[in-house]
Design brief:
The protein has a five-stranded antiparallel beta sheet with strand order 3-2-1-4-5, with helices on one face. The chain is an alpha+beta fold and 86 residues long. It is globular. The longest helix has 16 residues. α1 packs across α2.
């Protein structure tokens, strides 16, 4: 799940996922993260900083999945992940 980093305190970041804010651990991410960066989250851990050149395409893909959540199983899974905060 992609999200934008809102704040950082140590190895914890507050991240905005399509309007829902969650705490994400930064222990295993592949490079330093700054406020304003976009990260890819998996089960509460940032696993990758999304390069600037990929942000627009990545967000568009997830936004499409979220729109199709009512008819698509994968999209419904993404929606439930956002709501659960994992």
């Amino acid at each position: 799940m992609p999200g934008r980093v809102v704040s950082i305190e140590g190895l914890r970041a507050n991240v905005d996922f399509f309007g829902v804010r969650r705490t994400v651990r930064l222990d295993v991410v592949d490079e330093p993260i700054a406020v304003g960066d976009y990260i890819l989250n998996h089960v509460g851990f940032a696993i990758r900083r999304i390069p600037e050149s990929e942000i627009r395409e990545t967000l568009a893909l997830y936004e499409q999945l979220l729109r199709e959540a009512e008819t698509d199983i994968m999209a419904a899974d993404v929606r439930s992940e956002i709501e659960a905060g994992d």
